[in-house]
Amino acid sequence: MYFNFYNMFTEHKKKTRWVKRIFIIGALFLVIGVLVAWFIFTDTFDDTNKQKANIEINALDLIKQFETSDSSANKKFTEKIILVRGRVSETEIVDSIINIKMIDTTTNGTILFAFQQQNINDTKSLKVGDSIAIKGSCSGGVYSEILETEIINFKRCLVIK
After folding, report:
1. Non-local CB neighbours of 127 within 8 Å, separated by 6+ positions
2. How many CA atoms lie within 13 A of 94 on its CB side?
3. Rounded to the nearest 10 degrees, how much is the dihedral formed by the CA atoms of 56, 102, 136, 58?
4. 21: containing domain
5. What residues are paired with 99 via a beta bridge?
6. Could you tell me if 70 and 143 lie in one domain?
7. One domain for residues 30 and 78
8. What three-state secondary structure class fits 64?
9. How far apart are CA 128 and CA 5, in angstroms?
10. Per residue in 85-100, pLDDT tens?
């Protein structure tokens, strides 16, 4: 039995190459992950006031489209700037945010509008029954099994005068 230094050296060299490759690949994934996270966290949205509405629709018609087929309505409306006309059914203060609701009284389908901080003053004078137009970014709709109704959410909203 003899000790083969050459085999031991080449085995060690092969292991070292694999460790280096794994380290380089891991470092690349880490750099890519940091760049993606940076892009996501520093992404800003244009002010809704400066954007043109892609779609103008009546609140009851919007609710009906989601109730008919929320998957196709989500494809059509999600992440689009939409101008919705309707009557205020409810106002709700949550922390520093004011939510305005438009509700279809026959099906209880609800549109929930969340306002940007700079646009909250426009909502303070709104009362139940007021006819208004609200422009915002549609976050999509979901059917609530618990409430047995469709809920459509909007973000970055403002009242159009």
Report:
1. 88, 91
2. 11
3. 0
4. 1-43
5. 92, 114
6. yes
7. no
8. helix
9. 88
10. 999 999 887 777 788 9
